[in-house]
């Protein structure tokens, strides 16, 4: 009986030993996957191993040595276009009457502008609107407390906005005077600007762009020569534009009226000069 007990004890120890060997092999296999191996002793906690894979960024664009320059070309010229923005505004208790009044004042203004030699192509309607005119008041009791704010519609306003373009700049003052004499405080000048016609601007900007581009390359060539390197092809070129428009100068001139009447003041405008500027930024490869 004792012999059988010894055989059973040896069998249990044999199986337990095989189990420990399997567990140890699994632990070593897992640790080996993380590139590290640790010897564990009883009573020690297993270390945490975090291994992040390396990050590799690969670009297709090689690094190129370059010289970067910026050049500007500018020129002052006389404007050949005058733009006058104005509007006719009328008010009445009803929207229909405000519209009718606005049509009458606007027609009077257009007749005066045509008398100055302007054509329909010179006058453009930029906006037209009809909106309520809102007023408000506050009423309080005798003690000055318990105040109530009241808002109500007192009428309607019609507004016709026009843009007048003049290639004959000398007529600018006459247009302003015509607007000022149309209606009773119903025609208003919003803005006056001296500028360039599209064709004039394109020709000038093309010329300045060519000059600025040549200057940018000359500067890059000088920098390359001073640095002892050779200047290669252009890698990138970009442009920007900047125009300066002077504010018009108003002058009141008294002109004699016919038949001995009191002299009538008239308006003249001084256009000044328009400055057009073009900047070019370029990057050139060097060898």
What tags apply to this protein structure?
287 residues, alpha+beta, Translation Initiation Factor IF3, 4-stranded antiparallel beta sheet, 3-stranded antiparallel beta sheet, 4 helices, 9 strands
Give a verbal description of the structure.
The protein has 287 residues and is an alpha+beta fold. It folds into 2 domains: 66-78 and 199-286, 2-Layer Sandwich (Translation Initiation Factor IF3), CATH 3.30.110; 81-195, 2-Layer Sandwich (Alpha-Beta Plaits). The protein is 32% helix and 38% strand. The chain is built from 4 helices and 9 strands. The chain has helices at residues 2-33, 95-115, 172-180, 198-227; strands at residues 66-77, 81-92, 123-139, 148-166, 187-195, 231-244, 249-255, 264-270, 274-286. The strands form 3 sheets. A 4-stranded antiparallel beta sheet has the order 3-4-2-5, covered by helices on one side. A 3-stranded antiparallel beta sheet has the order 1-9-6, covered by helices on one side. The N and C termini lie far apart (97 Å).
